[in-house]
Write a structure and sequence with these properties.
Residues 42-65 are annotated as: Disordered. This is DUF3558 domain-containing protein. Residues 42-52 have a biased composition (Polar residues). This protein is an alpha+beta fold. The protein has a domain at 68-193: Protein Transport Mog1p, Chain A, CATH 3.40.1000. Helix content is 35%, strand content 24%. The protein has 5 helices and 7 strands; from the N terminus they run αααβββαββββα. The chain has helices at residues 4-26, 36-53, 74-80, 117-122, 179-193, and strands spanning 87-90, 96-101, 104-111, 130-135, 138-143, 149-157, 160-168. A hairpin with a 5-residue loop joins strand 5 and strand 6 (149-157). The termini are far apart.
Length: 198
């Protein structure tokens, strides 16, 4: 029969082994679960990262107070092969746009009420296609583009955006085929006519 002293030693050793096994599971640096304020900071960090993605405009133009139907001259419209008669309409964000419809369809829409190109980057995941570009040194984004249509967003100031929508209705001219290249050509013409920003 084992002595009480031997039994106590065996029990102490068994207990030490159990504690040692548990200790190996919990060893290391504990992971803290972020508090509500921490999660808010993380969200703010993500938004900041998104803002860092948006290119800055170094030579701003000003769209405010400019009639969109006057953003392309008659000579430019002829050169582009567009209709000479522009028709004003209202953009979803409440500003006036202008549309020229013939063999090709051209829409020029200023956006001075929102966040400039940052507005487009914030909705990046909602577009079927998204591709960064530039027009005459101004940052741009091609969005929801394809063989027939291109939406071109040009940052003309850090808080102003020029949207060019181009679609080829029935034109067979080679220059009208590549929708985004031609939209960029239209945007370059508009940029020539815009006053410098403040």
């Amino acid at each position: 029969m084992r002595s009480p002293r031997l039994r106590d030693v065996v029990l102490l050793l068994a207990g030490a082994l159990v504690l040692s096994a548990c200790g190996s599971v919990t060893s290391g640096t504990p992971i803290a679960i972020p508090s509500v304020s921490d999660r808010s900071s993380l969200s703010a960090g993500a938004a900041s990262s998104e803002n860092n993605e948006v290119p800055r405009v170094t030579n701003p133009k000003n769209l405010r107070g400019v009639d969109p139907c006057q953003m392309l001259t008659q000579a430019q419209l002829r050169e582009l092969g567009a209709s000479l008669e522009g028709k004003p309409d209202q953009a979803p964000w409440g500003e006036t746009l202008c549309r020229w419809v013939d063999d090709i369809r051209v829409t020029v829409a200023p956006d001075t009420k929102r966040r400039g190109l940052a507005e487009v980057y914030a909705r990046k995941k909602s577009f079927n296609s998204f591709q960064t570009s530039s027009v005459a040194g101004y940052p741009a984004v091609r969005a929801d583009f394809g063989a027939i249509r291109c939406n071109l967003n040009v940052g003309v100031a850090n808080d102003q955006l020029l949207l060019i929508q181009y679609s080829n209705n029935v034109s067979r001219k080679p220059e009208h085929k590549d929708t985004c290249v031609f939209a960029e050509r239209i945007a370059a013409e508009v940029l020539k006519n815009l006053p410098a920003g403040g």
